[in-house]
Specification:
Layout: H1 2-6, H2 18-30, H3 39-52, E1 55-57, E2 63-65
Antiparallel strand pairs: 1-2
Length: 66
C-alpha cells in the first residue's frame, strides 16, 4: 500500500541496513534533497521505520522522528 501510494514498485526486498536507516533519519531531520537511494529503497526504509515506530506521519503528512 505504501509503495503504491509513493508510485513505486518493490524490485527487490530491502535488507535492514542500519547505515541506510540512519541516513534516512538524518535526512528527515535536515530535509536534504538527495539521499543517493533509489525510490524503491527509500520507500522500503521508510516503511520499515514507520512499522518499527521510529518515525511517524504528522498531521500535514510530513515524516518525523518519534
Amino acid at each position: 500500500m505504501l509503495l503504491a501510494a509513493l508510485g513505486v514498485s518493490a524490485a527487490t526486498r530491502a535488507g535492514a541496513e542500519p547505515d541506510d536507516d540512519a541516513r534516512v533519519l538524518d535526512a528527515l531531520a535536515a530535509s536534504p534533497r538527495q539521499l543517493g537511494l533509489s525510490a524503491s529503497a527509500l520507500a522500503a526504509i521508510v516503511a520499515r521505520l514507520l512499522i518499527q515506530g521510529r518515525i511517524v506521519s504528522t498531521a500535514d503528512g510530513r515524516l518525523t522522528r518519534r
